[in-house]
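pls design
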């Protein structure tokens, strides 16, 4: 089973549901709201900098960085998501480039180097090889550039019965989407667990110097069972 084709089809089918959801609040974004969360906003100053957003979905975070002064490029494997991102950029009158490509093809498919490479929330589980991921990141950074990642803690998946440690064979599941307007329709996805050590060692092996590492006692998204406000 080709994981790229499976996941691409799954994300293509989810796009319209996500665009019309309260979870993503596209209407609010188009009136000027930011989709970014307090964690990443506190960490990054993007004004006047070039920013590459990996696995950007339909681009709300990418364009929110553009509103803060970044020159942005977003990439995603879903053609439907990228087309939606381009449409929203026009509606929002924002200068943002969007490219449909798999993360592992970014080095060849995306021109130039960037001050910042950014990835966030629920991204790396769709990738089987973090070493190749980290090498891709390193290949797109300018000298002195910054990679910033904000992700769900991998330990949370253990409570749902998944492995904490990497496994060669993916988890294959048919599941509905995570937005509040999800119906009974399911999509098939293939994903992989990655421990904190997997992430950190992949970045170190790619020559990326780790300046800081932080953990938080909250989730900015109410998308897991058992959370309280």
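designed seq:
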């Amino acid at each position: 089973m080709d994981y790229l084709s499976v996941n691409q089809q799954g994300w293509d089918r989810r796009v319209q549901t996500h665009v019309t959801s309260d979870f993503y609040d596209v209407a609010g974004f188009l009136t000027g709201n930011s989709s970014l969360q307090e964690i990443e906003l506190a960490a990054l100053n993007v004004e006047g900098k070039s920013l590459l957003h990996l696995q950007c979905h339909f681009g709300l975070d990418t364009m929110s960085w553009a509103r803060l002064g970044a020159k942005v490029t977003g990439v995603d494997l879903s053609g439907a998501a990228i087309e939606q991102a381009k449409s929203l950029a026009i509606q929002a009158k924002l200068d943002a480039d969007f490219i449909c490509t798999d993360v592992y093809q970014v080095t060849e498919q995306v021109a130039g180097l960037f001050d910042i490479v950014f990835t966030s929330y629920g991204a790396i589980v769709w990738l089987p090889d973090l070493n190749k991921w980290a090498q891709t990141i390193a290949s797109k950074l300018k000298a002195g550039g910054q990679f910033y990642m904000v992700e769900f803690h991998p330990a949370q998946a253990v409570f749902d019965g998944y492995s904490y440690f990497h496994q060669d064979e993916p988890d294959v599941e048919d599941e509905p989407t995570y937005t509040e307007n999800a119906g009974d329709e399911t999509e098939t996805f293939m994903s992989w667990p990655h421990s904190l050590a997997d992430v950190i060692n992949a970045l170190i092996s790619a020559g990326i110097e780790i300046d800081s590492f932080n953990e938080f006692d909250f989730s900015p998204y109410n998308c897991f069972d058992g959370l309280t406000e």
